[in-house]
Each structure stands twice: as structure tokens, then as C-alpha cells.
Amino acid sequence: MRIAIAGASGLIGTALGRSLRTDGHEVVRLVRRTAVAADEVEWDPGREYVDTAGLAGCDAVVNLAGAGIGDHRWTDAYKKELRDSRVLGTATLAEAVASLDVPPGVFLAGSALGYYGDTGDRAVDESAPPGEGFLASLCVEWEEAARAAEEAGIRTVFARTGLVVAKEGGAWGRLFPLFKAGLGGRMGDGSQYWSFIALHDHVAALRHILDTDSLSGPVNLTGPGPVTNREVTAAMGRVLHRPTLFTAPAPALRVALGEFAGDVLGSQRVLPKKLLESGFTFAFPGIDEAIGAAR
User: Is 176 left (phi over 0), alpha (psi -120 to 50) or beta?
Assistant: First the structure.
């Protein structure tokens, strides 16, 4: 297969590209500069530009691009960057693949569990409606931006990603150094659910989606057993053999993180119903296993 990836240099994109190449697939990387290598294709979401000639012959196009949710405080300017990097990028790629004489068989677009908002103790799957708040509204726009691909009859999938357990980056990439130093602990009262997925399983799930023609629309990429932040904290201590005495009180998080603290303290108990029903098997379904695989 020939597969184009936007966001190929990020945590998940790097791992997905490596996995595909290992199995002999051709990976094309979308880059925001002049393409200089044979495996590069230039694109610029800000200008709504893609070198569509470079996408010719692709069996799949995967969009994992987007500014980091927790990389900066949520000022109005950064919220605009978060939106534009996702919505404009997805719309640009969706329109590009729809314009091809021979379009790819699948357009796999990134999304997130933020779509569901704060679900509290209530377990939800792909049939649940969107929640409230900035991230929920962002995810709705993000997914709607792929309409051109859907209308062109291309199988379009939205990978609603959970918290990826990896030491190389993402939210867990910030947690590992703290816990290894014995400075880790629960956030707030620790009762909020975290829907996690091991990086290995996330990549395997993306590949499962690419290969499974029956999957379309939203697909939750999260493990089968969400756990509370208190349980995550205990698991990190067990697996890393470190104390977990520290806590980050909710008021302190709100001062430090601003609006983003509401999502850190919020609860998302999300289940991967479509993945399981399509026959996907998790290699690291439990929180201890996922942490152990990443450490």
C-alpha cells in the first residue's frame, strides 16, 4: 500500500510510519515546506494548498496533524491555532483527496475523545452525542471539515483518540519524568476517568482501521477499561516502583493551566465499541500493562 501521512513527525505519526515501513508499505510524508525527498509532499493548510500530484496512487491518506492541546495556556490566540491546525488542515486534505481522478480508498482523519465532553461516571461509545465546552465544539468542527471526502464517496473515519500512554510525548510523556522522580500524584480528587490507550495499540488500531472496509465514521481509539486518575496514579507507582505522595489540588491546576484545567479535571469514561465489534484485539488492555509497555 501507498499511504500519505500528515503529522508524520509527531508521536503517533512517527510510530505509524515506522510500523508501516517495517511491513513493506510505502509511506509519503506531508511537509509544510518545499519537498526535497522522494517520500515528501508539500502542503500548507494556511493557504489551503496540497501538491495533489504527490497524492496520486495513494491507497490511504491519514491526517494526524494539529497543534498540541496542552502545549500552551489557552489564550484566544492559541485556541485559534488549535482550531485552525485541525479544521483547516482536515478540510484542505479532504478537498484534495476528493479532487483526485482516482481517490484513495480511505481518508483517516484525527479526532479526539474531547468530542464527548465531561461524561462523569457514565460510560459512552460512538453513539453518544457531542458534549459541551471548547474541546467538544472543536472536535465537532474538526470532523465536519472532512465533509468533502465523505461526499466524494471515500470511506472516511474519525479516529477519536484517548490519552496515549507513551514516554516519548503527549500527556503521558510529561507524567513519566515526574513519577520516575517520585514527584507524581493524583490530580484533583482523582475520581475523574481517564480513557487511555497504549501507543502500540493505538498504532495497531489505526492499521486495523485502514485494513477494515466496514469501519467508517467515528471510531474510539481507547482501551477497553477506562480507569480513574487515582487508579492511574497507583498504577504508575506500582509499575515504576516509586512513591506517589504528591497531589495537584484542583485550585492550583486552575491557576496554572487556566481553562485547560477543566479538561484535566474532567472525566471521560469512553469505550471502544466499534473497534471491539470489528474484531480488534488489544495487546495491552490494562493500565499496568500499558504503562509497563511504555516505560
Answer: alpha
Domain 2-294, classified CATH 3.40.50.1400, yes or no:
no
Mean pLDDT on 5-15: 95
CA-nearest of 216, 195, 223, 218 to 281 is 223
pLDDT of the residue at 75: 86
Tell me, what's the pLDDT at 256?
46
* 263: its cell numbers: 479538561
pLDDT in tens, 226-240: 999 999 999 999 999
Return the number of other C-beta atoms located less than 10 Å from residue 55's C-beta. 22
Strand partners, 219: 159
Query: What value does the mean pLDDT take over residues 269-287?
Result: 98
The angle formed by the CA atoms of residues 128, 130 and 134, to the nearest 5 degrees, is 150
Averaged pLDDT, 182-205 = 92
Closest to 218 in 3D by CA, of 145, 272, 169: 272
Of 227, 154, 146, 215, nearest to 186 by C-alpha is 227
Q: What is the pLDDT of residues 148-188, one digit of tens each?
A: 999 999 999 999 999 999 999 888 888 888 889 888 888 88
Distances (CA, A) of 287 to 76, 151, 179, 270: 35, 39, 15, 15
Tens of pLDDT along 100-141? Answer: 999 999 999 999 999 999 999 999 999 999 999 999 999 999
Q: Which string of b and e fits 85-102 if b means at least 16 CB within 10 Å?
A: bbbbbbbbbbbbbbebee
Contact 13, 64 (CB under 8 A): yes
Helix (H) / strand (E) containing 196: strand 196-198
Cα–Cα distance measured from residue 291 to residue 232, given in angstroms and rounded to the nearest whole number: 9
Q: List, in sequence order, every residue forming a beta bridge with 49; answer none if it has no partner.
A: 44
The bridge status of strand 60-63 relative to strand 106-112 is parallel
